[in-house]
Write a structure and sequence with these properties.
The complex is a heterodimer of chains A (291) and B (532).
Chain A: H1 2-25, H2 49-82, H3 98-126, E1 134-141, E2 144-149, E3 155-159, E4 181-184, E5 189-195, E6 200-204, E7 209-213, E8 219-223, E9 229-234, E10 247-253, H4 255-268, E11 278-281, E12 287-290
Parallel strand pairs in A: 1-5, 4-10
Antiparallel strand pairs in A: 1-2, 2-3, 5-8, 6-7, 9-10, 11-12
Helix pairs in contact in A: 1-2, 2-3
Chain B: H1 15-20, H2 25-53, H3 65-101, H4 109-131, H5 156-184, H6 197-228, H7 242-276, H8 283-296, H9 312-324, H10 326-340, H11 349-372, H12 374-380, H13 384-414, H14 420-447, H15 461-489
Classes of the chains: A alpha+beta (291), B mainly alpha (532).
Bound molecules: protoporphyrin IX containing FE (HEM) and copper (II) ion (CU) (2 copies).
One copper (II) ion binds next to loops of chain A.
Amino acid sequence: MQNYRKFNLGFFTAGMAFLATLFATVMSSGVNAAEPKPWQMNFQPAATPVMEKITDFHNLLLIVEVAIVVFVLILMLIIIVKFNSKSNPEPSKTTHNTALEVVWTVIPIVILIVLAVPSMKLLFFMDKAQNPEMTLKITGHQWYWSYQYPDNGNFEFDSNIVPDDEIKPGQRRLLEVDNQVVIPVNTEIRLLMTSDDVIHNWAIPAFGVKMDTVPGRTNESWIKVTKPGVYYGQCSELCGINHGFMPIAVNVVSKADFKKWTVKAKKEFAKVNDGPVRVVKMKSSATAEIR
Amino acid sequence: MSDTAHDHHDHRPTGWKRWVYSTNHKDIGTMYLALAMVAAIVGAAASVVIRMELHQPGIQFITDFQFYNVLVTAHGFIMVFFVVMPALIGGFGNWFIPLMVGTPDMAFPRMNNLSFWLVAAGLVLLVIAGLIDGGPGTGWTVYPPLANADYHPGMAVDFGILALHLAGASSILGAINFITTIINMRAPGMTFHRMPLFIWAMLLTAILLLLAIPVLAGALTMLLTDRNFGTAFFSPEGGGDPILWQHLFWFFGHPEVYIMIIPAFGVISEIVSTFSKKPIFGYLGMAYAMAAIGVVGFVVWAHHMYTVGFNVETRAYFTLATMVIAVPTGVKIFSWLATMWGGSIKFDTPMLYAMGFIFLFVVGGVTGVTLANAGSDMAFHDTYFVVAHFHYVLSIAAIFAMYAGFFYWIGKMSGKQYPEGLARLQFWITFVGVNVLFFPQHFAGMAGMPRRIPDYPDAYAGWNMISSYGAYITAIGGLLFFVVLWKTLTSKETVAANQWGEGASTLEWTVASPAPFHTHEDTPKVGSQPAE
Ligand code: HEM
Ligand SMILES: [Cu+2]
Ligand SMILES: [Cu+2]
């Protein structure tokens, strides 16, 4: 019986130590990608100032959090070793220590204040574009996205998933789309988002953008991508049967290439969207207009 | 004459009537525990099927993605409303509130019976909901417009709504019963500041239920009329607002997470104190920390909604309010550790589960700080990181409290000794299993994997595979639990009235094991216990 207990405690210790190490290694992976990588443990590399700030803030959070977990684990290990019934047959009678109780109330408050300052800075920084150079309108549909460029000729196009059976070698399953969104690098872009049916969410991990598209509302966010490349994301709000199958792919190109692309795109996607009003029939008797 | 003079102890219905008509708090508690176990099998089966589907990239066997969404939804609903709440509140609450406050039964025994049968009927409706018209594929959050009749035609969502209505009515009645019992029927000498922490936890939980459930009920009714009677509370086409639903849902939903975890706090406090052979450290701080968590819990709901498009000041407020909760939570953790400090601890199964609970709760708690910040939450919202977070801090922590409470009290409930060695093995399998299951999900989530998807980009394969193996290990632990349960109930080894010895100072240990059908018919007197 006694032996059995010893074995268990050793195992307990080892298990917790392993988890703590695992937690700490989250810090240390440095892959370079605009997409998830196998066995990745950390964020995708930041491609916008917002994501850079999120990453910095999270690094701070992580240090504090790992420290708290490790601290508690150490206390638990000491308790297991020193205060089991064999090593300590006579329990102490202490049930109060006002100083201690004040300390463990005040120190967390101090830690939270230290965290709250950068948190608020980040939050207010990421809120809105200060001087947007262009606007991109994003509409969620069951189950694809459409994009409109009001400042570049007001063309609009749909972006659908490339299904598994059409994926070519080298393409990323469940992330590739038929029409990528093209945007210029180093340009402050205002994103306006809404939905045509249910709530979706337009999210690109490397951009630090995640915003619900809500029918009847327009939400605003912004990006300024600092590195050219193709960036991937997925719908991040349950929107029905094919929620897992409406990816987002953004191709970030030089400003000159973007100009060229808009000329081409204007012809290719010549259906301008300030025309007819669509009538949506509700299941109930009400009829409503959605632009 | 001989009729009225009969011995009280023999007045005990038998056969099916004993259970169906039961007004006895112990029998009702047992029925709640049985219901939770049945529901746990269904809810866990759903989650294992989900993890099997996610074991590898590509579609394994669920070709109907609506069915996948229904599985996720059913798993969430069943675990929340029909496993954790019935077990921790209905089961342990009914069994041990009267025993611990020193009263023969609950204040309203017949209403108690009604509470149980309402939640049982709710479970039946929920199962029906899953089987008809494609099922509700809305997630447990039931966000319209997806939950509207346009996108979920058929009756599945309506059945789901009615299931929650019944579960909610059951909770409200139960809460009234708990509050009345605890406030009015404590043994002489048991002042508020002498109540065991489990009783504090149950009282606060009942108050939270009473304040939160009516909001859910109102929202559900509005959704029901939106779906069936032409109202448009949540439809923009009719002048309504889908975000209104989210406010109402989370005004209920955030207190709901405390409704699940505060009873767990109560169970863990009793066990930590008993096995350390010490009164709880900082008793008043512990009680008022729970009260503070309950109060602040009502003003933080929109931290679940950081991406809906609030203005930045709103997000700032909810960030700061949410961070405040970390302070009383810290008080609880450190007080448990301080209770153990200097103790003479026996690491029997209930104590192993209690320590496991503290570990899981701390890991899930710190990731909660990450998610509380509206800024960093942009990177985590709706990813698997959130799934990992809430399973650590809430779901699995609550399951650990249930296992802990079961092993702590099964001697009192059945009079039998559980097999200690097998039970410890069961703990270790479960502890390893849940960490293998949920820790890798932090990584998948940070890399960007969204939740509620039946297939994922190939890069997420590694962590998902490990997570699925964790689910299988956890499931083996679950099956082993039923073996332990069987061995306990069929065991010949009985336990004494106070099987845990000097550390167990609450009133349930003063009555025989198994607890007789009627207890505390002579009101016990309470001296200075538990702490002050
Ligand atoms: C047997 C252990 C468990 C396993 C393997 C498990 C697994 C899962 C999985 C795979 C998901 C789906 C995640 C997603 O796609 O977003 C999930 C969601 C969820 N789980 Fe669990 N879980 C377990 C225990 C629990 C418990 C005990 C609770 C009790 C509260 C719980 C509550 C939830 C909730 C509320 C959701 C969210 C459902 C939704 O997205 O609507 N789980 N779980
Ligand atoms: Cu979606
Ligand atoms: Cu919450």
